[in-house]
Amino acid sequence: LAGGQHIESVFIPEERRTTICISSQVGCALGCAFCATAQMGFLSNLSSGEIVEQVLRVQQDTGRKITNVVLMGMGEPFLNYSRVIQACRIMSDPEGLAIAAKKITISTVGVVPRIRQFADERQPFSLAISLHAATQPLRQSIMP
Known about the structure:
Blueprint: E1 10-13, E2 18-22, E3 25-27, E4 42-45, H1 48-62, E5 68-71, H2 81-92, E6 104-108, H3 112-120, E7 126-129, H4 136-142
Parallel strand pairs: 2-5, 5-6, 6-7
Antiparallel strand pairs: 1-2, 3-4
Helix pairs in contact: 1-2
């Protein structure tokens, strides 16, 4: 990225699909105890173009079309909501990357106002909520 910043994108090839796990931010502000990205702190939000570019670069590097996208890399996607949604629209647009909307999954640790907004807007993308613990006290001890 510009300014020497780095993000991660993970290519997950399988027999019937090719998945990429992509980042939405450089670093993360949430500080979850189990997450290496939390040690970086928050540096910046990615633009919608930088989010989409991760898919394009992996397709170019591997020569394989990406069929599934998970926004589960660095950062909390719902703390960069508008850019993430715009990137998902580009990825799912038939004139864009033409990845089926239901095969694009946005993962959140539970940013409730954005979950409500996502539902109210009836976004066509899949949603994953990462709980990380079976009980609320344990969850609160490892996540903000």
